[in-house]
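Input/output pair, single chain:
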Amino acid sequence: MVRVAHAQPRTRVIATGEPGLGHGQRRLRRRESVVVLADDGGHRALSVLVADEPGGISIQELLERPADDVWTTASIPEELAVRLAEAAGGRVTGVEIYPVTHNPEEVNAATCAARVELGARHVTASVGQGLRLAVVAASPVRVDGALLDRLAVPVQHDDPAAPFWRTAAGAGQVPARAGAVLHVPVEPGERPRFEPRNMRFADGLDRWHLDAAVRGDYSVAVEASCANLSSAVPEPSGRGALLQTIFADDFRGAPVVFRAELRAENVAGSAALCLGIRWGGKGADHQEERAVTAVDCTGWCSGEVSALIPETAELIQFGVVLSGTGQVLLRNPELLRDDA
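Output:
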């Protein structure tokens, strides 16, 4: 038995289409919530990533609604479902989260499902739908024991969310298995943090995006732990870039170095590592600055580019840039503070 202890919504930008074909790419904004389930008896917690329904209400909003608030079925489908069940003489008696894939490394809609119990009967739902129903109906939540034993993390100081959050001082290191969880600070008023993610391309192009002057002129694919940025037409316009963007909070006021191994093949223009910064004080116009270091080698070679991150920096963007025809392969990228 667990309880829904906390939820934090986030918006993630994802790319759709076939990266290897160099066309059909779109950037979509996906609303998600990171939900923390607390096993109070076992002093441990489990993070769950769920998709928020378009135009719907998030789990955080459900948790934070006053008990005497008047809910409407028009805006909360789960409330309608609970009322319909009650009108038919039934009720939601429990929700169980269980895996649908072998040994999942994360609890989300692709790896797990929810069994919504209606007395002796049950219906299957997505993890997000199941948890929202449980919150609305105030029904018990259970998690498959083997799944909980493998993925739950220890909790100290009676704060189930602590293992998945960062404070401004950098506390609360997040276990690797919680890698998909948005790191948000515990202290109110702080904004969420992102760390460099998927730096070995184990999850394909997750967290990375293709930025091209003209859509379809460049393409990107992942091959054997390497990202391959290449021209997709005989005469590409402008440049193409494979980039990752993170919040700058953990790097402000410090020199930062971005280094990686590159291999350029048949490049008619130029290939370079890039490190970009976006900043702007209160009331000021946003400014951007990008530093690049050109790479000119046929075999694998190491390169790096560095910059001082201003105290007013908002975002850091890093990756590889290709101008003209050819291809450039990227592997083992690192973004590090260079305080020494």
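The radius of gyration is 23 Å. Helices lie at 59-64, 77-87, 127-137, 145-151.
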